């Protein structure tokens, strides 16, 4: 067989392998972006649930009026915050919840209403889990986007670089 045929076959085979690899990388990057979006939706749902539980606690008349007002105001700020201030508002809500739970009479005020405290602890824990899952997804997507091939061939297209969501999400009562 002539050398030029062998060279042509090898070139075509190399081009096919390269095309398959680039396609695989693009698909992987797309899956990572979908994972980030899904994790962000779960994080948003967990944050909304925590706000709802906080508002329920504030309206329950189980707390003193000042604490109820503080919690309601922090929850309202977290609920209405825009993208630029959401992390700060959510951190403020976490601190307000911890301050309320750490009050000396908090547990006594919930006697017989352990479901409220359990629901609050569950909502706060889910925020922590969802934030960790989201930030892990963001880290993997950012790492994949740093690859030379991804940058050179612009495999990420016009998708924005995902950002981390950093809040004070230490659970109340711990």
If you had to describe this structure to a student in words, what would you say it looks like?
This protein has 6 helices and no strands. The protein has one domain (about 5-150). The protein has helices at about 5-60, 65-80, 85-100, 105-110, 115-145, 150. The longest helix has about 55 residues, at about 5-60. The protein has about 170 residues and is mainly alpha-helical.
Integer tally of domains? 1
Task: Tell me how many strands there are.
Answer: 0
Uncertain stretches:
none
What are the secondary-structure elements, in order, as H or E? Answer: HHHHHH
Strand content: under 5%
Q: What's the shape?
A: rod-shaped
Rg value: 25 Å
Largest sheet: none
Straight-line distance between termini? 76 Å
Quick check: average pLDDT?
Answer: 90
Number of helices: 6
| Structure class | mainly alpha
Helicity range of the residues?
Answer: over 70%
Protein name: LemA family protein
Keywords: Membrane, Transmembrane, Transmembrane helix
Organism: Actinomadura rayongensis
Transmembrane segments: 6-24
List the main descriptive attributes of the protein structure presented here:
single chain; 174 residues; mainly alpha; 6 helices; rod-shaped
